[in-house]
Amino acid sequence: QVQLVESGGGLVQAGGSLRLSCAASVRTFSSYSMGWFRQAPGKEREFVAAISWSGGNTGDADSVKGRFTISRDNAKNKVYLQMNSLKPEDTAVYYCAAEATDYTTTYRVLASDYHYWGQGTQVTVSS
Asked: What phi and psi, each to the nearest 5 degrees, are found at residue 106?
């Protein structure tokens, strides 16, 4: 069983930055691929960024490319999402997700690929 707890959300002005953290309660964090997703009111949950079990491979959505960076610290059982140049359209609940790695897939971009989810943290960007 994996428990995920996100933190770091809040209210920020457009152009500002936030750093989201996700703490995982699991014995072998390095055995999990991790991802960040977001869901705005009335919209489907969408992929934001993902990272492989080792941190050596990452991917992100076109909408956040060049502005958001995903990273992980396996010693601390944490994954991060650094969000810069925030826009009002980034406003959403952000979710951390985890899935046991098969060591062949670099990272996962589909929500259906993830078995474990956090409760989410709200990010609101004002114009």
From this structure: -70, -55
